[in-house]
Amino acid sequence: MTIARRDITGIVLAGGQGRRMGNVDKGFVELAGRPLVAHVIARLAPQVSTIVVNANRNAARYAELGYPVVADSVGGYAGPLAGLHAGLAAAATDFVVTSPCDSPFLPDDLVARLAAAFDARPIDIAVARTFDQPHPVFALARRSLMPHLARFLEGGGRKIDAWYATLPMSEVGFDDEADAFRNINTPAELAQSAAAH
């Protein structure tokens, strides 16, 4: 099956608490004069038909970026799975792809390579991997997984890898672009990325 760009909604995951960054909203931490979330959207938008931002605070500020903003329906900052759940509920396309708001270097070919995994065999989700490290927050998933995910969350499940381990899935190697998955969690990592940018 060929998954077209028009069939994919990008979900930018900006719903976390940013604890390691001093409890700030990481999406608005600046790198090279622009908020991290703007870097992510600039890279993701050309790969998808539209974008939804998942955020649990500063919704009006995120809305200024020009895309719909959805909050978790699961309370208590439940993590990326809750963000995926909110994005799935908002998406009108058959597929969604996720990226965190703190990974400003994500690959320009992320979606194309994840989508190619669906051609190889019948799967529900494709997850990026570099060497032996999966990156579950960079995933292309069918929107039809929504009820399955809702049940997992209702049962108290929060770990994204535990959820997708129950599904037909593929990990897609990005060993050649390992640096693209760097995320910025701490002020030190921000300074390092700014120096290299």
Protein model, in words:
This protein is α/β, with parallel strands linked by helices. The protein has one domain (5-196): Spore Coat Polysaccharide Biosynthesis Protein SpsA, Chain A, CATH 3.90.550. Helix content is 30%, strand content 23%. It contains seven helices and nine strands, in the order E-E-E-H-E-H-E-H-E-H-E-E-H-H-E-H. The chain has helices at 36-44, 59-63, 80-90, 110-120, 146-154, 160-164, 187-196, and strands spanning 8-14, 30-31, 34-35, 50-55, 69-70, 95-100, 125-130, 133-142, 169-173. Strands 5-4-1-6-8-7-9 form a seven-stranded mixed β-sheet, sandwiched between helices. Strand 7 (125-130) and strand 8 (133-142) form a beta hairpin. Helix 3 runs antiparallel to helix 5 (146-154). The longest helix is centred in the middle third of the chain and has 11 residues, at 80-90.
Determine the CATH topology. Spore Coat Polysaccharide Biosynthesis Protein SpsA, Chain A
Instruction: Give helix % range.
Output: 25-40%
Low-confidence stretches: none
**Structural class by SSE content:** alpha/beta
- Architecture, according to CATH? Alpha-Beta Complex
Biggest β-sheet: count, sense, barrel? 7 strands, mixed
Strand content: 15-25%
Number of helices: 7
Number of structural units classed as domains: 1
Mean model confidence by pLDDT = 92
Shape type: globular
CATH class category name: Alpha Beta
Alpha-carbon distance between the termini? Answer: 38 Å
Strand sequence of the main sheet, in spatial order? 5-4-1-6-8-7-9
Q: What sequence of helices (H) and strands (E) makes up the elements?
A: EEEHEHEHEHEEHHEH
The total strand number stands at: 9
What would you report as the Rg, rounded to the nearest angstrom? 16 Å
CATH H-level name... which superfamily? Answer: Spore Coat Polysaccharide Biosynthesis Protein SpsA, Chain A
